[in-house]
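Hi support team,

I've been running sequence recovery on a batch of backbones for a student project. Most finish fine, but this one hangs at about 90% for roughly twenty minutes before it completes. I'm not sure whether the input is malformed or the queue is just slow. I've pasted the structure tokens below so you can try to reproduce it. Let me know if you need the job ID as well.

Thanks,
M.K.
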């Protein structure tokens, strides 16, 4: 069990599928009280059956007012995982305003909004906390048809650092995890082209994509007291992709 997680209250966004869902399961197993936030009610219901006792909140985080209504009075939260995101891939010359706005609303603005709600509560209580933002290797490398997604994640890395700067004095640590491709609904939807897969795999020294568990392990480490002196970091979970 990770020290510092049992009994603490953790909020995970994008909890219905993929990395977020696995993060909820791991936090639940570690003895944390979990608030699982996602967009599809059926996903949250099945997750609550797997992890008895978790709280669920169904909201579209791309909607500022709905998010305020759903989470504004969520109560004390010690640990936050900003995981929800969309990957809307378009060639740069065909990028639409809709895809741009939706992506930035969910991948960046919601991170700021939910973090504000959680961090304001921590500051008011004088309690320490930890926030982990799920970024991507795409924050630091250009990938064709990913202009919006790469931009949201690049901005998220920098938001992570500024949050770490301003929240550090309140004993709130803020870090990012930057995975390579992971086999989730998002990963499968966007990485089915063998040529595209090969181009990235050829640049990964460990020669494989990440497992969901690899990402979750790093998230739990950054939430826990084991990383008590780490803040403002962007931790690659990429088999060495960003080193090359
Ligand atoms: P996923 O399989 O698509 O799951 C994303 C979850 O977030 C879903 O439950 C989804 O709910 C929820 N979500 C999306 N938009 C939302 C919104 N507006 N409001 C509330 N919930 C919303 O994605 P994943 O692969 O697990 O990705 C998780 C994180 O890892 C993301 O930040 C992603 O950018 C990052 N990442 C993924 C990969 C990869 O290859 N998979 C690689 C690097 C980084 P619905 O399904 O109901 O919309």
């Amino acid at each position: 069990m990770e020290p510092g997680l049992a009994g603490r209250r953790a909020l995970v966004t994008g909890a219905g599928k993929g990395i977020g869902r696995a993060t909820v399961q791991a936090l639940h197993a570690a003895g944390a009280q979990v608030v699982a936030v996602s967009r599809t009610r059926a996903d949250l219901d099945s997750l609550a059956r797997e992890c008895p006792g978790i709280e669920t909140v169904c909201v579209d985080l791309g909607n500022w007012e709905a998010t305020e209504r759903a989470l504004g009075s969520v109560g004390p939260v010690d640990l936050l995982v900003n995981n929800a995101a969309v990957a809307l891939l378009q060639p740069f010359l065909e990028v639409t305003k809709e895809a741009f706005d939706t992506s930035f609303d969910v991948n960046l603005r919601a991170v700021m909004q939910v973090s504000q709600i959680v961090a304001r509560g921590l500051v008011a209580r004088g309690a320490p906390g930890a926030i982990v933002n799920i970024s991507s290797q795409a924050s630091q490398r250009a990938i064709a048809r990913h202009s919006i997604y790469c931009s949201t994640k690049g901005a998220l890395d920098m938001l992570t650092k500024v949050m770490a700067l301003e929240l550090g004095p309140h004993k709130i640590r803020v870090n990012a995890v930057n995975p390579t491709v992971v086999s989730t609904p998002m990963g499968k939807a966007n990485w089915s082209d063998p040529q595209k897969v090969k181009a990235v795999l050829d640049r990964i020294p460990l020669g494989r994509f990440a497992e969901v568990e690899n990402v979750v392990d790093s998230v739990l480490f950054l939430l826990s007291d084991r990383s008590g002196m780490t803040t403002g970091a962007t931790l690659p979970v990429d088999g060495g992709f960003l080193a090359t």
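--
Follow-up from support: It reproduced on our side and the slowdown came from queue contention, not your input. The chain is about 45% helix and 15% strand. No action needed from you.
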